[in-house]
Task: structure prediction
Amino acid sequence: MESGMQESLQQPDDKDIHLDQIVNLAENAAETIERLRSELHRRDQRIRQLEQAEAQLRQAAQRYLRMKAQLEAQSEAKAGFAANGTIYQTFDEAFDAAYPGTVPE
Result:
């Protein structure tokens, strides 16, 4: 088998072009693999960032719900919730009035 490889390497120049094409394909494949690895790394980083943001938002939502439950459980809550000088029936209405930038559209 080794002698067969030597024969193909020693054949006329048209076979050398074929070997050059193989080398070019290998180089292109290596560049493509590196580019894909880089893209994968960037996407992995983005996924980690999004997972961290989700965890932070989840914690903030849980704090909000705990605070809301505690405030609604107080006897004063029956009178409503004040925000910006107005009394609202629900905590959510008062919160939205007090923090208008947080109201979803």
The longest strand covers residues 81-83. Strands lie at 81-83, 86-88. The helical segments are 2-9, 13-73, 91-98. DSSP finds three helices and two strands in the chain.
